[in-house]
Amino acid sequence: MFIGYTISSIVLPRMADLYGRKLIFRRFFIMHAIGIGLILFTPSYIGIYFGLMLVGAASTLRSAVGYIYSLEFIETSKQNVAGTFMKTIDVTLPIWVSLLFMNVSNEWRNYYIVSFIGGLLVWMLAFLIPETPSFLLA
């Protein structure tokens, strides 16, 4: 995941500035779904590692591009509170999932299935979100 995250951190934010955050947002959620699908259904370690790299690359989408994309829809006076709230959820959610995995179920595939379904849902909903105002004005 780290390699994918690092490589996409170099390229992805600039691509979102050039081509629009909505387009990049939708395309990278497809990459996230492919990565999760590889992790779930491939029998080889190479496929799993490649899937983890794709998920890591798509994580940049959530933590950088998605963060900026969502803040552009919030009025300026409330962006600090909203950004703090989003980053708090982004940081604490893996901790809660780890505790759930440790105490409730050791079946890792269930968590990836939920992630896969959630990613597809967000991808479908991304078609309803308008392009950011800053890209339209540029």
Write the layout of secondary structure elements.
Layout: H1 2-19, H2 21-41, H3 45-71, H4 79-103, H5 108-125, H6 133-137
What features would you describe in this structure?
The chain is an all-alpha fold. It has 6 helices and no strands. The chain is globular and about 45 Å long. It starts with a helix and ends with a helix. The relative contact order is 0.16. The mean pLDDT is 83.
Task: Give descriptors for this structure.
globular, 0% strand
Short description:
The protein is built from 6 helices and no strands.
Oligomer: single chain
H/E element sequence: HHHHHH
Q: Roughly how many Å apart are the termini?
A: 33 Å
The share of residues in helices is: over 70%
Low-pLDDT runs of 5+ residues are none
Q: Indicate the overall shape.
A: globular
Mean pLDDT figure: 83
